[in-house]
Amino acid sequence: MRKAHPLHLRLLWLLRDEGPLSRAELADRLQIPRPRLLAELERLVALGYVAEAGLAKSRGGRRSTLVELDPRLRFAAVDMGASSIDVEVVNGRLEPVAAYAEQADIRSGPKATLHRVNELLHKARADGAYERLDAIGVGVPGPVSFRDGVPVSPPIMPGWDRFPVRELLTREHGCPAVVDNDVNIMAIGERHGGVAHSVDDFLFVKIGTGIGCGIFLGGEVYRGSDGCAGDIGHIQAEPHGPVCSCGNVGCLEALFSGAALAKDATAAARSGTSPALAERLAARGRVTALDVAEGAGEGDVTCIQLIREGGRRLGGVLAGLVSFANPSMIVIGGGLAQLGHILLAEIRSVVYRRSLPLATGNLPVVLSELGPRAGVAGAAVLASDVAFLEAS
Amino acid sequence: MRKAHPLHLRLLWLLRDEGPLSRAELADRLQIPRPRLLAELERLVALGYVAEAGLAKSRGGRRSTLVELDPRLRFAAVDMGASSIDVEVVNGRLEPVAAYAEQADIRSGPKATLHRVNELLHKARADGAYERLDAIGVGVPGPVSFRDGVPVSPPIMPGWDRFPVRELLTREHGCPAVVDNDVNIMAIGERHGGVAHSVDDFLFVKIGTGIGCGIFLGGEVYRGSDGCAGDIGHIQAEPHGPVCSCGNVGCLEALFSGAALAKDATAAARSGTSPALAERLAARGRVTALDVAEGAGEGDVTCIQLIREGGRRLGGVLAGLVSFANPSMIVIGGGLAQLGHILLAEIRSVVYRRSLPLATGNLPVVLSELGPRAGVAGAAVLASDVAFLEAS
Q1: Domains along chain B?
Q2: I need a surface site. Which of A42, B19, B170, B379 has the fewest CB within 10 A?
Q3: Which A-chain residues 302-341 have CB contacts (< 8 A) with chain B?
Q4: Which A positions 94-153 lie with beta carbon below 8 A of chain B?
C-alpha cells in the first residue's frame, strides 16, 4: 500500500483486507492525525462505504468502538473462460455470499454470453445475495483494452472485438464495472489472497487451453502500452516447430498447452507407447491433458515424459523472461497446473540452469494456491478497487 | 513528471530540463500557490541549488525576474566500458563543461580503474571545470546492485564483485555517487535527451561486445527484484546453437554480438566468400564487426547477409519480449548500431511478423540518437537526480 495513494483508498483497503479496526488502530496504520481520520470516516459513512461495528475486545481501560466496511457492500466477480462462466457475489471483505458456475461457449458471442451473466446476477439478487451491486469485475479470455473496457481482437472470442462489455454491464446493473484479461485477474487474485501475497514483482503463468502470463511489477499489474503485455503463448519456443493457430511456427502454445498436450496424448494412446492413455482412449473415445496428469500419477512413463517435455519448453521461455524481467516469484496456474510437481521440477531445472545466478538465487517457482478460484478472486479485488476509487 | 514526486524534485527537474523560468511560470507549471513556491525557492537558494537569473524578456508590463539552477552546480558523469573510460563534467542543465575519454581495460580491476577515474576528475578540477562536485553518476559494464552501489558477479569485470564503487567515489570526492549498469544509463540518457524523449515504456537494446537491454516501464527504469533485469544476451536464440562463454548453448550473444560477428567475419574473409572482408583481413591482420558494417555499405553480399542473419536472431528474441512487455518503442544502440538500417529492417520484419498486431501496430524500432554519448548523458541525469534528492 503506497503512501502516494489517496487516503480514502488506503483506508478502505485496510478495512477490506483486515476487517473491523478501531479508530486508534486506523490512525496509527495510516499515519494520519486523528481529526483527519474522523473527518474522512464521517464522509465514508455518509457515502455508505463504512459503518460502526460495535465494541472492540477489552484490552483494559475503555473499550474502543470499531469501524468496518458497510455490511451491505456487494461486488460481483465474473470469470469468463473459453467454455465456462463463474460468478460470485462477495461482500466488502470479498467473502463469497453466492456462487454460480456453468458451462458456456464464449464463441456464442457477447450478446448471448453477457445475457447469461446478467441472468446469473439477477438470480443472485432473487436469491437474496444483494439488493444492489456496488461494482462488477469481469475477466475475459483474450486481450482487453483496460482503459476502454473492451476486448481487442481476441483470437478465441469471435464477435467480441471492441464489444462494449463494461458499458453494457454498467447500464444493466447501474454500477461501475471493470474488464480485464483472464490471466491478469488470476494474478490479481493470487497476489491478494494466494501464494503471491504481498509479492511485488512476479509472473503468473496460466497454462490452460492456451498459455498466458499476468505480470506484477512494483506491486501493480503491468499491462503494457497497448494493454496486451503477457501474451507469451506465441513466443517462439522452437524455430522448426509445428505451425500454430496464429500462423507462425513453433509458438510455445503449439508445443505445450491443453490443446497441444491432448493431441500428443492421443498420438501416444494410438501408437501404444502409453498403456494408461490407451486404456482411457478406449474407455472414453478421447484423451485430454488431465488424462496425462492421471497417467503420470500412476507412473505411466510416457505421460511423465510428455509433462517433462512440456515443462522443458515452458521453462525455456520462462528462463528468457527471468533474464529480462528478474521477477522474485513465478506462479504456475490454470488447468494444467494439475500436472503438478513433475512440471514444476522441469521448469525449475531449465530456469535455474539458464538464467543469471543473481536472478535465480532466490526465485521460487510455485503452483497457484487459489487454483480455479484465482479468477473470480481477482475479479472481486478489481471490482472493489473501482468501487472504492469512486468514493473520492 | 509525476505529481507524487516531492515538490523540490519537480522544481529542480523543471529548471534542469527547461532552463531559467519566472516565478509565475514555475507556480503555473507546478500547479502550486505562489507563497508555497516562494518559500520553496528561498529554501533551495539557501541550500545552493537555485539562483536568481536576471530579468525575463519583456512581454509588456513589468519584467519578471527569472530563477535558474545555481550556475556553480557540477555533476560528474562516468561511463566505464570494457575497454574505455568516458568522463564528463556537466553543469546543472547537464551541459558539458569538460570531457575526457581514454582507453582502459576494465579487467585491470577496480583499484587501477577507479584510480584513473579519480585522476581524470582531479584533472578536470585543475582545468577549472569545477570547484566541487555535487554528485557523480557512474555506469559499469555488468550487473549492479543499484541499492548498494556495487557490481554483482559481473562476468567481464574480474575483481569487481561487490567492490564498493559508490562508497569509494563518495569518499574521494565528498559528494553522493550513484552506480548503475551501462545499459541502464544509456537508456536513461536516451529518454532524457534522445529519441525516447518522454516515452514511458521502451526497451533500449545495446549491441556491443555483448548484448543487454535497458527497460523503461511507466516512466522509470525497471531494474528487477535483484537489479539484473535486462540480461537478454543470454536468452536462448537457437536450441542447437554454439556454446556461449556462460556455458549455456545458443545464447543470443553467442550468435550475434560484436565478438560473434568478428568471428563470423573472419571466417568469411578466410573462406573467400567476402571480397570486402578478405581485403581488410589482408590489410590489417584482423576484421571486426565494424568491417562488416563498412563492407555492407560497399554492397558486399556476405556482409549484408551477416547483418541480416544477426538481425533475424535479435529480432526473434525481441519479438518474444514485445509479446511479453508490450513496449511502445525499441531503441537500438551500442557499437553495432552502426550496422544501421539493414539491421533495423530485419529486426522490424521479424518483430512485426511474430508479435500480436495490437502490440506492433504502433511500435517504432529506431536507432539511438545519442550514439556513443548515451552513456555519459544518462550518468549525468542519474547524478543530478541523486543530488536533487538530497535537497529535501
Answers
A1: 7-69 (1.10.10.10), 74-190+373-389 (3.30.420.40), 197-368 (3.30.420.40)
A2: A42
A3: 316-317, 319-321, 323-328
A4: 143, 152-153
Q: How far is CA B183 from CA B147, B166, B204, B309, B379, in A?
A: 17, 18, 8, 23, 11
| Tens of pLDDT, residues B234-255 | 999 988 889 988 888 999 999 9
DSSP E strand boundaries for chain B? 21-22, 50-55, 65-69, 74-80, 84-91, 96-103, 135-140, 144-145, 150-151, 177-181, 202-207, 211-217, 220-221, 329-333, 365-367
Question: Is A251's pLDDT higher than 90?
Answer: yes
Neighbours of B283 (CB within 10 A): 10
Residue with cell 503477457: A230
A200 contact residues in B (CB cutoff 8 A) = 225
pLDDT at site B174: 96
Residue A3 pLDDT class (50, 70, 90 cuts): very low
How many CB atoms lie under 10 A from the CB of residue A194? 24
Percent of chain B with pLDDT over 70: 98
Residue B2 has pLDDT above 50, yes or no: no
pLDDT at B1: 40
ipTM score of the complex?
Answer: 0.87
CA distance B80 to B39: 40
Closest residue in B to A4 (Cα–Cα): B4
* Beta-carbon count within 10 A of A110 CB: 20
Chain A residues with CB inside 8 Å of B205's CB? Answer: none
Give per-residue pLDDT as tens, B278-321.
Answer: 999 999 999 999 899 999 989 999 999 999 999 999 999 999 99
Which chain A residue is nearest to residue B153, measuring alpha carbons?
A358
